Inverse folding.
């Protein structure tokens, strides 16, 4: 009986320590595979549990189909699509053509045009169907806030 209990205990210990091995494609490959289009933009204050959908407040209709291209050569382009914006429209978020990069852990993404903008995002989630970036910043009143960019695959 003692041998049976010991064998059962050892098998349960071994079974509980086993981990399933799941292959996950590197973030770089998922991000660069296709253009991305904004799905939703969320806003919240640090330390507050409320998050607001501010997509329509920040993105004009002509921006909602823009392609965000994070290319394998580390070039970035935001391309106006079918619903084109007037040149005088100020765009929200990264725009134009510039460079981009990921940190060594592929968890922090930067996009910048010197003297124009400099975004550093946390790569919150990326799959073949969704790409989520979080941008921590301060607002005009110097409150710590964040924006969550939720992208869907573009064409």
């Amino acid at each position: 009986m003692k041998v049976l209990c010991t064998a059962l205990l050892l098998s349960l210990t071994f079974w509980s320590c086993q981990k399933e091995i799941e292959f996950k494609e590197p973030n770089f490959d998922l991000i660069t595979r296709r253009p991305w289009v904004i799905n939703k933009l969320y806003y919240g204050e640090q330390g507050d549990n409320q998050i607001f959908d501010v997509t329509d407040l920040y993105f004009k209709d002509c921006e909602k189909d823009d392609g965000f291209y994070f290319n394998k050569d580390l070039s970035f382009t935001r391309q106006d699509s079918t619903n084109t914006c007037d040149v005088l429209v100020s765009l929200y978020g990264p725009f134009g053509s510039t460079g981009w990069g990921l940190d060594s852990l592929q968890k922090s993404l930067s996009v910048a045009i010197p003297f124009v903008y400099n975004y550093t995002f946390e790569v919150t989630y990326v799959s073949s169907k969704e790409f989520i970036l979080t941008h921590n910043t301060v607002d005009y009143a110097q409150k710590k806030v964040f924006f969550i960019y939720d992208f869907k695959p573009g064409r």
Summary: The domain at 26-153 is CATH 2.40.128.540 (Lipocalin). Confidence is low (pLDDT under 50) at residues 3-19.
